[in-house]
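Same chain as my last thread, 209 residues:
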Amino acid sequence: ILLLAVVALLAVSSYAQFNNPDNRAHFGLRLSANINSPSDVSVGKISFDGFKTGPGFSFGGVYNIPVWQNLYVEPGLMLWRDTYKTELEDIDDSGETYNIESKVKKFGFSIPVMVGYRFDVFSRGGWSFFTGPELRIGLTGKECDDDGHSIGIYGDEGWANQVDCAWNVGTGINIDKFYVGFTASLGMADMIKEQPKYRENRFCFSVGY
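reply #2:
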């Protein structure tokens, strides 16, 4: 199967070169600064704001495969680090409300597969628009409070799902061999094993070569 996939990629690349000789399959590097923006927490028809945005980053490589003229497919492999804050209200025995705050820290890898089209609007580059799915797998994760205590969020005793699937929409500019881009990522999987539910969204600013 792997050999057939390699042969298919080579055939697609050769066909694309026939349609537009300036296009060549190539590897690229990406470094992204992310803003993680989890959705509202929902329980049935009730929803509330239980999370605050937090910073993150990702780093990895992509392989740009021309398909036809300036249409391309771009799979990748990324390592990522995400953080965001939880902020929930609870009621003590006297009936007073108080805030429960903690910070979620996660590390893992992802496999995006983008389909895009590049418009040759510059003499030395182009402007691309792309979209596609991204499989995200968490390797380690913990929830930390202000006192320095932490608990693992994955595994049998954790509350979080390790596998997420997101749908990405973005745009980027290539000038010579340099790349600058912006991507909005919409989470499609619930990240808590039981009720309540929420999804992870993020905005990514990327540079690359």
